Amino acid sequence: MAPTIETFINSFQNRLEPPVRQHLKNVYATLMMTCVSATVGVFVDIYTSFQAGFLSTILGVGLMLMLIATPDNGKNTKLRLGYLLGFGLTSGIGMGPLLEYVSVVDPSIIVTALLGTSLVFVCFSIASMLAERGSWLYLGGTLMTLLTSMSLMSLANIFMQSHFLYQSHLYLGLILMCGFVLFDTQLIIEKRRMGSKDFVQHALELFIDFIGIFRRLVVILTQKEEQNRRRKRD
């Protein structure tokens, strides 16, 4: 076991230069802070009378755009971090109604989805870090094409109200977010090698991937639980 762990650690050290490793530490620490902020947002929505609804989505988009528009010049780090944590908070508030409903169906679904999301995210991140340099960057075009197709599918389903399209969109979205974890992780590494130290925006990109996987897993697991309950009643 010890040689295996030592080999695993050495593979990281051989693949990633010290500045890249330090940058990734900053990115993942910031990502964890954003996830905590999102958790606070969920509790605010569920356990208080504050119901932002669609307003939280508008605020979240605004904060994200402000973060992207604010230059990373070394002096705005705290401001940009505040925008990111605010985005995490509004994202959690926006997911509050979904998680409140799921907690009524089966609270364990939330824990299972969170563990599943963390496992998927960690595995795909490690796979991306240990892969050949730039080997996953080719996914960018495919992922953007799939994202555009899913947007059109979602728009069409507003009028068609097709259960098949909804389910296809749900599962394709899960695959898409997993692909983005591979792509974004390698892109962040390459950006750091080219001199970018913007760990705040890089954490934003990974947070969007993480929360996208989590939301879809929650919906999928809830659907399966409801189907099982209907079968038992029948």
Query: Which structural class do you get from the secondary structure elements?
Result: mainly alpha
Helix percentage: over 70%
Radius of gyration: 19 Å
- As for the number of domains, it is 1
Low-confidence parts, pLDDT < 50 over ≥5 residues?
none
> Proportion of β residues?
under 5%
Instruction: State the major sheet.
Output: none
Sum up the overall morphology in one term: globular
Distance between the termini: 50 Å
Number of strands: 0
The total count of helices amounts to 8
Mean model confidence by pLDDT: 91
**Run of helices and strands:** HHHHHHHH
GO molecular function: enzyme binding
GO biological process, one term: cellular response to unfolded protein
Family: Belongs to the BI1 family.
Transmembrane segments: 27-44, 50-69, 81-102, 108-130, 137-158, 170-189
Topology summary:
Elements: H1 2-15, H2 18-47, H3 54-69, H4 77-105, H5 108-130, H6 139-160, H7 163-193, H8 199-233
Question: What does this protein look like?
Answer:
By secondary structure, the protein is mostly helical. Helices cover 85% and strands 0% of the residues. It has helices spanning 2-15, 18-47, 54-69, 77-105, 108-130, 139-160, 163-193, 199-233. α2 (18-47) packs across α8. It is globular, with a radius of gyration of 19 Å. The mean pLDDT is 91.
Question: What's the short story on this structure?
Answer:
This protein is mostly helical and 234 residues long. It is built from eight helices and no strands.
What key phrases describe this protein's structure?
234 residues, membrane, transmembrane, Bax inhibitor
